[in-house]
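Usage example:
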Amino acid sequence: MTLRGKDLLGIENLNAEEIELFLTTAASFKEVGARTIKKVPTLRGRTIINLFYEPSTRTRVSFEIAAKRLSADAINVSVAGSSVSKGETLVDTVRNLQAMAPDVIVMRHHASGAPHIVAKEVEAAVVNAGDGMHEHPTQALLDAFTILEAKQKLSELKVVIVGDLLHSRVFRSNLQLLTKMGSRVVVSGPPTLIPPHIQELGAEVAPTLEQALVDADVVMMLRVQTERMAGAFFPSVREYFRLYALTLARLERAKPDVILMHPGPLNRGLEIDSAVADGPYSVILEQVTNGVAVRMAVLYLLAGGHGEST
Amino acid sequence: MTDKLVMDGAAFEAALLRVAEEIASQTSRASGFAGRLALVGIRTRGVPLSQRLATLIEASTGERPALGVLDITLYRDDLTAVAEQPIVGRTDLPFPVDDTWIVLVDDVLYTGRTVRAAITALIDFGRPRKIELLAMVDRGCRELPIHADYAGATLETTKTQTVHVHVAEQDGRDEVVLIG
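Running the assembly step on the lines above writes:
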């Protein structure tokens, strides 16, 4: 089993076998993170550039730790203080980075499709760490890994995704991954934050959050992305909390072994009640732990050999 | 191409018993060794071999050695040369490595590069008292200064030949076949 492309741009381009390859490889890498010496020599001498055009704590640190645990050299470029602030175009920036021969470029950009343009310009493998409102494939893979650990399967599950679906690349990647693996995705949120024609990608839209949650195996809450909201998408924080926040009372409709996920960062008191976020169903911090193992697997599989086929 | 059966099931069983006795007598004779013995199987065929050896050693000494599994993929020295990334298996060493007498178990000892990787991996987990090597078949052709402390069989081979060790747990029967 091997990957077909040089890059990881989205879940859209992956088939079920490739998704499984990422997940089984990640399972082996999780053990490395539990050792006293959390480092293996696998990617010694490889260079990985983290190019972030948008703020990030979790994802950037996660990729950096993943690279370092594999003994690769990780270089972080943040846009403030780079030539981007002097007006350099994206393509010029990455051509210059390519001239320094990195093996992998991990990038986050506010424009959907930006990593796809970059992937055509460079020889290095490109990993999409989030592009606009489009995809965030490593988040979907780490979510799948976390679900698999809890449920031992990725098929025939009812996964409920709630909140700001419109602006969420996490949602779009998760929707594609979960439907490819044979699970049901039911969504709920303010009608203004549900993307039109989302049923065509396989999502079922529930009339209310209460109805969506019935017999759920997994509940995934999304962050309300106020930074992407130019207009008024909902009347008030109070109303949003009253209709769409996950509370313990609402969660009782789900299956008794339901797990609660959130990609972070949390807006406590907006989309999620603290009693739920810190409660027994929550696997939010496991998601973060698993993120390192999944990104190690992604870097390992993409930064691999460039030798001749044997 | 000719296939030559080097060991059948009975010979295989006898060889395993012999090396198990050798390990048992080595550890019981070692002066001052009152600590742990652990058998670490190198994926994939070293794993069932190490499990069978543990049972044989237990029958001989009354004490069952600890068992571990080692995947050496992350420590390979040829990752830049191979076109496709090899599948990474899970390593599981459920005992403290520090001060343990470890016998690495592998099916075939050939260039010695797998064993070099296995030693590097083990040392990342701690400081064993001693690391020894058991190979079901030592086929020569070494590229590194590594030798087997225990060998089920020793074969003279050339690099164009292939040695297959089959184990009942994975391949349906025990045998050693020399091809070429």
